[in-house]
């Protein structure tokens, strides 16, 4: 008789633990993270597209006059302009690629990503290499 009570208590405790764990699981699964809206998850693919596009790469390396218009158009197609604003800078590898601080007055949490663009990855010519740097922030 006492053995049955012991097993019954063990089963009751196991069921209670399962109920508590399942309620935590339900609460945790309802808190969805919207990863697609994270700024970095929108800007990084846009920057990758720019440096992998041969036309844009050539414009960057040749300092084409329509460069900024084409770059901004390509980036605008990849990010949500209602949530993220940005500014671009293109500079050589040895130049300082920092922006003017006054551009960011009144903005919180400014992020930066950069990629290097070279003519040929197997035989890189570092004298002609450029950095494409994007500074971005969330719009509130």
Task: Give a written overview of the molecule.
With 140 residues, the protein is of the alpha+beta class. It folds into 2 domains: 1-32; 35-138. The protein has 4 helices and 3 strands, in the order ααααβββ. It has helices spanning 2-30, 39-52, 54-62, 67-76, and strands at residues 84-92, 111-117, 130-138. It has a 3-stranded antiparallel beta sheet. α2 (39-52) crosses α4. The longest helix has 29 residues, at 2-30. The radius of gyration is 26 Å and the shape is elongated. The mean pLDDT is 79.
Jot down its keywords.
140 residues; three-stranded antiparallel sheet; single chain; alpha+beta; 2 domains
Number of helices: 4
Shape: elongated
Widest sheet: strand ordering: 1-3-2
Helical coverage, percent range: 40-55%
Order of helical and strand elements: HHHHEEE
How far apart, in Å, are the first and last alpha carbons? 67 Å
Specify Rg, calculated over alpha carbons: 26 Å
Low-confidence stretches: none
Mean pLDDT: 79
Main beta sheet: strand number and arrangement? 3 strands, antiparallel
> Helix/strand-derived class?
alpha+beta
- The number of domains: 2
Number of strands: 3
**Which percent band covers the strand fraction?**
15-25%
Topology diagram in text:
Blueprint: H1 2-30, H2 39-52, H3 54-62, H4 67-76, E1 84-92, E2 111-117, E3 130-138
Antiparallel strand pairs: 1-3, 2-3
Condensed summary:
This protein has 140 residues and is of the alpha+beta class. The chain contains 4 helices and 3 strands; from the N terminus they run ααααβββ.
